[in-house]
Write a sequence for this structure.
């Protein structure tokens, strides 16, 4: 899938800015913490820094950005 201009702009901004990028929450799934229409700042971090309670944004299979709160982290142990 070729990203639309808005997605491309977001990815470029995240890549070049240590401060991250502003995105707008478009659904009520994060309420009451994050209201519909509220802007939030996202930034890229290494996966090792993610913690339970963090809010993450990722690009889903259909290309849409999805915002969720981490509730569980599973660790895989390689022997």
């Amino acid at each position: 899938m070729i990203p639309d201009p808005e997605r491309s702009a977001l990815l470029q901004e995240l890549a070049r800015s240590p401060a991250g990028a502003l995105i707008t929450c478009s659904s009520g799934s994060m309420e009451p913490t994050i209201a519909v229409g509220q802007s939030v700042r996202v930034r890229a971090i290494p996966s090792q820094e993610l913690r339970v309670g963090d809010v993450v944004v990722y690009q889903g299979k259909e290309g849409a950005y999805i915002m969720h709160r981490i509730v569980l982290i599973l660790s895989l142990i390689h022997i």
